[in-house]
Amino acid sequence: MRNQPTNAATAKISPDLPLTPEQGQLVQQILTFTTSHLNTAGPAVFTIYGDAGTGKSVVLSHLFNRLQVAARTQTTSPLAGTKNYFLVNHPEILKVYREIAGNHPHLLKKDFQRPTSLINQIAKGQVQPDVLVIDEAHLLLSQADHYNNFYGNNQLSSLLATAKVIIVVFDETQVLRMKSFWTEQHLAQLVAPFPHATYRLTHQFRMQASDDLVRWINDFTHRRIGPLPTDVGTGYDLRVFDDAEQMRQAVVQRNNEVGLSRIVATSGYPSTLDGGKHYVTEGKFSLPWDQYNYTSTPWAELPQTINEVGSIYTCQGFDLNYVGIILGPPVSLDTDDRLQINLDRYTDVEAFKKRDDLTDPTEITRIKQQLILNSINVLMKRGVKGLYLYAHDSRLRHYLHASTA
């Protein structure tokens, strides 16, 4: 039977979780930074860098709870009476934080917002924030996006013009769309005029995998493919499948045993935002893409989604116990055993929308290829206990399978 309280996404980033000494010191460092810049001219920025699974979100969860407890209960604190908000530009992750808020007396669901919503409230004079905490800042829009009602040039720039202190977490390897194209260099240039500090988290908390396997994933998503490591971590389950349906059956078994196990895939299969079902099909395997989730429960925690294929848009930022990944048609191996990214086979049209500030065709191609590789990085690092792989490309599938023999 599924153990929901243990597997719930809220349990993974709750402010009630114990912190490591490093994480606890980081929270205190950020609090000191925040209080020392509340009354200085101009905004101050604290940036936390770190790969997927390095504990960034749990640090922010603890930090924001501390901020709001001080703001709402500690009358002698420099934070007393401050108006603080937690922002994340990902609807599924926002659901998790709002659920956490419902279980903590000094966190309100309205404290947690999408960036565009808060920016528009500020523009109307409805709120004036003091401290902003931004999770997944690499998802902030870096150009106007009328579809999402953002008419500025850069969401972080808009927020810098209003808040006194901003704390962001950032990972450029999780940038997935041209409209939110960021690099560490771009971020550093943007905050350079303001008081700022940085910290880089490096320890992998999510995956119970060996450092060798994490390194292999990082290399793979930078087009440096090599044999899978022999040491994948004690108890970590790494498998390569020749048959996607067999992989699905293995994931279903894991889900029945421990819960939070799902099939996910890269782009490269029919996908249109028309309200209909579009299927990922590989031989006998055929399941629909994840459907838009209108509930307050994150996609991965809905029992029926064991019969769907997750995407970066439902899985980014979440822990799964076991993840089965279909590497779709855009990813292949050439005759010299080099990883090849086929842009013409990518079906996520939203990912590659044109930017006026990017005009060099060679650079645009490089960025598009890296966005695809970033999506693979996001998906490969979802599994806490295990990673199952199936590749559409027969040459890549054979290479991966042979390297585990």
Automatic annotation (TrEMBL):
This protein's source sits in the domain of life called Bacteria
Protein name (database record): Schlafen group 3-like DNA/RNA helicase domain-containing protein
**Gene3D superfamilies in alphabetical order:** P-loop containing nucleotide triphosphate hydrolases
Q: Which InterPro entries match?
A: P-loop_NTPase, SLFN_3-like_DNA/RNA_helicase
Q: Which organism is it from?
A: Levilactobacillus parabrevis ATCC 53295
One Pfam family, please name it. SLFN-g3_helicase
Schlafen group 3-like DNA/RNA helicase domain location is 44-393
Q: Which SUPFAM superfamilies match?
A: P-loop containing nucleoside triphosphate hydrolases
